[in-house]
Request: fold
Amino acid sequence: MAEPLLLTGSLLPVLAALLLEPRLTRELLRDLRVPRILHYVALGGLGMALFLRQSGQAGRIPDPDLLWRFLLFAVALSYAAVFAIVTNNLEDVAADRVTNPDRPLVLGTVNPAVYLRAGVLSLLASLLVAVLADRRMLAGVLAITAGYFVYSCRPFRLKRVPILSKLLIGLNSLAVAVCGFALAGGDFREFPPSWALYLLVPLSLAANFVDLKDTEGDRRTGVATLPVLLGERVARHCIAVSTVVAYSAAGFLLAIPWVHPLNAGVAALHLYGLYRKPYEEGRVFAVYVSALFALDGILLL
Reply:
């Protein structure tokens, strides 16, 4: 009974914000970047599915408590994402003027100090939900928040460092998956090494597509993403190769014959979105996130 009440209570900060600061809250919600949040929610689900499969519980009706923990984890990740978005936007105003002119700080629709305060309050809400739900969830939220802070913010701002920047994103992805594994009842030390390697290398490399639309802004502000270093055309080819490797590796790890043709079809759709002109990140993200949730579902079969 505690989990449903906590889930209901976790929505109260949003309602309070809409009443007290409706304009600011609408700007935060408009800039929420749902596909990126769903990426991490799917990876949390991946960790849970891996434990259920490893423990022989796949194919059964999931424990209701586990479903509530999954939903609470999604809420905690969403609040933490607001803090990550706010701090990243504060650091990236110059680049956003070039590639993301609709961001609230560029448009001048929010006060920077109040905007930062809202981000900090969102982080506190995330930590409160996590600590009330499960201490393992708290560890996961702290890990991903720390990862994004050193990635985006001064004095670290490691997003400017080639290779290391995407390794950090890979570590964040792994942290969320390991947290899901632990929330499902597993020992984090028993997380499958093959899947850890999958998250750190092919999946992280394939995720470089998120930098394609920001190439010019990153170039002007000295952020050495793959498209900046190699040029957009060569970088797109490298990302395409990484994408094929990521889909192939997932099929290999699943070791289910009927998955391979389905996997190939989704990979082809992903590549089509990657090369389609004009490039629309949303289309690629839709395929990418759908594939991750499908991976969760297949593991649970």
Q: What stands out?
A: Residues 105 and 112 are 7 Å apart (CA to CA). The longest helix spans residues 64-91. The two ends are 28 Å apart (CA to CA). The domain at 2-300 is CATH 1.10.600 (Farnesyl Diphosphate Synthase).
